Amino acid sequence: MSYKHLGSRNSGAPGWLFQRITGIVLIVAMVGHYILMHYTPTSGHEYASTFERMQNPLWKIFYLTFVVIGLYHGLNGIWGIVRDFKMKPWVSITILGFIIIAGISFATLGFMNVLVF
């Protein structure tokens, strides 16, 4: 009887757990963002108020974290769906490459937008 599968690094359990944790963090962040942007009349609808808020380093950290966690959660979810289809290795590697390039591109755009303030 083999117990090689128990505790295996390839079990996917850490990725599964982190996907759920990032989902919960995203829900909290989205609710906070939604309340800030839609229930405060001038908060996100005027450049001056956005500029003022973004001068605070904590807001920058919040939005940079939001970008990173959102990208991880979304792109990891897409990769999980792709892995469910048993494709040839070169197809999987190609798709993973596109996912990584998209992640780097969108992270760069997100960081540029937040850090420009």
Describe the structure in your own words.
The protein is an all-alpha fold. The protein is elongated and about 50 Å long. The model has no long low-confidence stretch (mean pLDDT 86). Helix 1 crosses helix 3 (57-84) and helix 3 (57-84) packs antiparallel against helix 4. The longest helix has 28 residues, at 57-84. The protein contains four helices and no strands. It has a domain at 23-30 and 56-115. The termini are far apart.
Radius of gyration: 19 Å
Strand content bin: under 5%
Described by the principal axes of the CA atoms, the overall outline is elongated
Q: How can the largest sheet be summarized? A: none
Q: What is the distance, rounded to the nearest whole angstrom, between the alpha carbons of the first and last residues?
A: 60 Å
Tally of extended strands?
0
Mean pLDDT: 86
Number of helices: 4
Percent of residues in helices comes to: over 70%
SSE run: HHHH
Q: Helices and strands: which structural class?
A: mainly alpha
Oligomeric organization of the protein chains? single chain
